[in-house]
Amino acid sequence: MDRLDAMSTFVKVAESGSLSAASRRLGRSLASVSRQLAALEARLGGRLLHRTTRRLGLTEAGRDFYDRAKRILGEVEEAERALGEAAAAPSGRLRLSAPSLLGRLHVAPLLPEFLAQHARVSVDLTLLDRVVDPIEEGLDLALRIGPLAESGALARKLGSVHLVVCAAPRYLERRGAPSVPEELVEHDCLVFGASADGAEWHFQRGERKLGLRVPARLQANALEPLVAAALGGAGLVRAPCWQVGEHIAAGRLRRVLAEYERPAAPIHALFPPGRPLPTKVRAFVDFLAAHWAPPPFDCPVIEGRHRDGPTARTG
Length: 315
Known about the structure:
By secondary structure, the protein is α/β, with parallel strands linked by helices. The protein has 10 helices and 14 strands. The protein has helices at residues 3-16, 19-26, 30-44, 60-88, 100-107, 111-117, 169-175, 223-231, 241-249, 279-291, and strands at residues 49-51, 56-58, 92-98, 121-127, 141-145, 154-161, 163-167, 189-192, 199-205, 208-214, 216-220, 236-240, 254-256, 265-271.
């Protein structure tokens, strides 16, 4: 006999005033309720109820047992509720990775607020500029920019980002703005990458796609020094809107070849499959989605036509 279940049945019978009313409330047969009460009385060694043809009444022992049973069932229910809330609350160590620039600019600055909201969560953030498989590397979550290759990971799209070509006004005044991508071979390009012969920049206009290898006047394996060089008038840089948007809005950089920009690259959160999503992961992804809506990744709209290039548009 399940003692708590029998105790609960007795309380329902006592409060309902009859076995038939209690059986309806419990969704069980009258015979089942009657057998359970009889088994409970046999276990306790005394009668709990006075049975008459019209209704049931509590014996003195029944009244005492009812008060105790009601209190015990309430405490059990409260314990279960508290345990359920604790299980539902985000907790534990959240292991996540992000591309370096995205992580520095748009993830790390949000972490203090997230940690303040979720006192039982700790975060292990790794910044990596390579494709990360959350399954192979034991991560709870990996942020990735670009199309997703086939894998066993689950994904949720959180935003997108454009790459734009821009330069300081003084550089464009000195050298002129390229009107088509092919003219970049005559310009000083500030290139992100490790190849000794420059890098391939990709463009698109309508259905036409173009991959163009540009000469590297300055090359680095991080975008920050390249953007700094562009601000200093050293040449043209191709960078994510989230890194140069404020400079474009302030006029420190001008966007060129806007009509040749490729569609935005998606930003996804990837999770290992095969198990329910932990509350700490769900909480963090929802937190990012709320802070990235509207996404902070697009360049501002620039109205009008620059004398050194076509009208820029929103990325």
